Amino acid sequence: MSEVAPHSRRDNVTSGSIRPTWAPFNSVLASEERLLFSLRLMNEDWSSERDFSAFRLGDVLNIQAEVGAHSHAPLRLFVDSCVASLGPGAGSEPQYAIVDFNGCLVDGRADATSSAFVTPRPRQDVLRFQIDAFRFAGDTRSLIYITCHLKVTPAEQSPDALNKACSFSKARNA
């Protein structure tokens, strides 16, 4: 029987203990707090969650993303990506990208859609967007799953290439 050492040391090792000088900062402590993300289907005037989920093709879906954190520094919420699929989970196939490229509502590029982020935001920790109800081509199922990746930045941080909420303007893309 032979033993193999994972690696050998050639340097001297002292037994003196190391005393770290690091102390947690507020931003580090704040990041340890759990954030409560939600994605809800809202009624027409955005005043409450929609009671029913039956839609006709072309109906507008009001979707509200929100983050809640008690005693947390102010946050700005972004929808990094969203996909629609026929099954639960991000790995289900087929998929249709609704939001992609770090926050662009790509569904709005299609000529027949009115999809867009709603501006202005009601608060920095809330983001609303609208998409047109649709069905996957050639599929008769009436249930579609929407899976989104939400993220936050400090509210005072300006949007940038990785943290944005952009909609396509058909007038400028024509």
TrEMBL record:
Post-translation: what modifications?
A: Proteolytically cleaved before the transmembrane segment to yield the secreted ectodomain incorporated in the zona pellucida.
- Primary location group: other
Compartments (UniProt record):
Zona pellucida; Cell membrane
Ranges for the ZP domain?
Answer: 1-173
User: What is its membrane topology?
Assistant: Single-pass type I membrane protein
**A single MF term (Gene Ontology):** acrosin binding
Q: Which InterPro entries match?
A: ZP-C, ZP-C_dom, ZP_chr, ZP_dom
Q: Name one GO cellular component term.
A: egg coat
> According to the lineage, what is the superkingdom?
Eukaryota
Q: Which UniProt keywords apply?
A: Cell membrane, Cleavage on pair of basic residues, Disulfide bond, Extracellular matrix, Glycoprotein, Membrane, Secreted, Signal
Q: Which GO terms describe its biological process?
A: binding of sperm to zona pellucida; egg coat formation; positive regulation of acrosome reaction
Q: What is known of its domains?
A: The ZP domain is involved in the polymerization of the ZP proteins to form the zona pellucida.
Q: Which family, according to UniProt?
A: Belongs to the ZP domain family. ZPC subfamily.
The UniProt entry, under PANTHER family, shows: ZONA PELLUCIDA SPERM-BINDING PROTEIN 3
Instruction: State its role.
Output: Component of the zona pellucida, an extracellular matrix surrounding oocytes which mediates sperm binding, induction of the acrosome reaction and prevents post-fertilization polyspermy. The zona pellucida is composed of 3 to 4 glycoproteins, ZP1, ZP2, ZP3, and ZP4. ZP3 is essential for sperm binding and zona matrix formation.
Recorded protein name is Zona pellucida sperm-binding protein 3
Q: Which organism is it from?
A: Hirundo rustica rustica
